[in-house]
Amino acid sequence: MSIDKKNLRRFIKAQKDLFSSLKDEQSATIIQKLEADEDFLHAQTVLLYYSLPDEVDTHSLVARYYQKKHLLLPVVKGEELELKEFQGQLHEGTFGIQEPEGETFEAFDQIELVVVPGMAFDKEGKRLGRGKGFYDRLLPKLTNAKKIGICFPYQLVDTVPTDVQDIPMDKIITL
């Protein structure tokens, strides 16, 4: 039985509600695993995301590494994600997402690692986003970057329905 993207998003949202009490503890463990990952340890220019309340919490990770690595965060600009250097200051942007105020970064080939959020992932690295296509448009530009998806255990499913433009992750980190 295959499931379409809309129904998979609905299923994952219900799971997020069901497991919300475990979010903080699970986030901490997932972030520890990311920090121990060889690709993360060796990368100097890293694109992270500043998590929404229902995502693996990256706030402490961003705070710990912005002075140790060249840290970039995405900013929603129309239909695209613009990358900005994180230098310690955030403000509320589109969709209520906290966004950096640093310089715009366009040297995509210098990005060594991108940590990608998603609604669901599968063991083959396929990813289901929220449906707006922001990362689908950004990831093809990051030709030199390793792509790591991080997620809660219930977000790792047997199969993620994909389209031809969907870029798979190189690695998925969960519990």
Condensed summary:
With 175 residues, the chain is an alpha/beta fold. It is 26% helix and 25% strand.
Provide a descriptive summary of the structure in words.
The strands form three sheets. The chain has a seven-stranded mixed beta sheet with strand order 6-3-2-1-7-10-12. Strands 9-8-11 form a three-stranded mixed beta sheet, covered by helices on one side. It is globular. The chain has 175 residues and is an alpha/beta fold. Helix 4 links the parallel strand 1 and strand 2. It has a single domain, classed as Rossmann fold, CATH 3.40.50.10420.
Chain-wise SSE layout:
Blueprint: H1 5-18, H2 23-36, H3 38-42, E1 45-47, H4 59-65, E2 70-77, E3 80-85, E4 90-92, E5 98-100, E6 104-105, E7 113-116, E8 120-122, E9 127-128, H5 134-138, E10 146-150, E11 156-157, E12 171-173
Parallel strand pairs: 1-2, 1-7, 7-10, 8-11, 10-12
Antiparallel strand pairs: 2-3, 3-6, 4-5, 8-9
Provide keyphrases for this structure.
single chain; 175 residues; alpha/beta; Rossmann fold; 7-stranded mixed β-sheet; 3-stranded mixed β-sheet; 5 helices; 12 strands; 26% helix
Content-based structural category? alpha/beta
Mean pLDDT over the full residue set: 94
Mass-distribution shape: globular
Integer count of domains: 1
- Helix amount: 25-40%
- Give the name of the CATH superfamily: NagB/RpiA/CoA transferase-like
**Global Rg:** 15 Å
